Every structure is written in C-alpha cells, then in structure tokens.
Amino acid sequence: MFIDGLLTVALTLELLFLGMSVASSFGESGAGRRRTVLTVTGLSGAVIEAALLYLVTEELLTEAHEVKETPLITAAFFAGFVLLYLIEACT
User: Where do transmembrane segments lie in this chain (predicted)?
Assistant: First the structure.
C-alpha cells in the first residue's frame, strides 16, 4: 500500500511540473488559453492512463515479477501502449 501511495504522489508531482512547463512554453509562444488548457489536460490524461496500466500489469500479473525488469522492457511496454493509443485515436 505504501508503494501505491508513493506512486500516486510521484505521478501527481510529475504531472504538475509537466503541466506547468507546457503551459509556460505555450504562454511564451503566444498560444491561446483554451489551447493551452486542452493540451495540458490531454497530456495528463495520457500519462495517467499509461501509469495506471503499468501499475495494473505490475500488481495483478504474477508473470510480470518472474522476469527481471530492465529499462528496455519498461520502455518497450510504454512504447507499445502509446502506439496502441495512437492507433485507437486515429481510427
């Protein structure tokens, strides 16, 4: 349970700083407020979905703990998720 809470806090802080960075960049480029808000909202939604999918995979699938996790495996998981997400969004 402690790890889940820690993950929640870490993701919240990450999304906060990601949103602030994107909003700042959009503000400097002269983008409108509506576009900025929609972009930040879209980014946070995609990141939250990926994080929750990763958490479910790690916690519920016992096979996920049988193989040593490497950065390459984690990156491949997220790349696959993003690819499927983009395919779904384009159809």
Answer: 37-57, 69-87
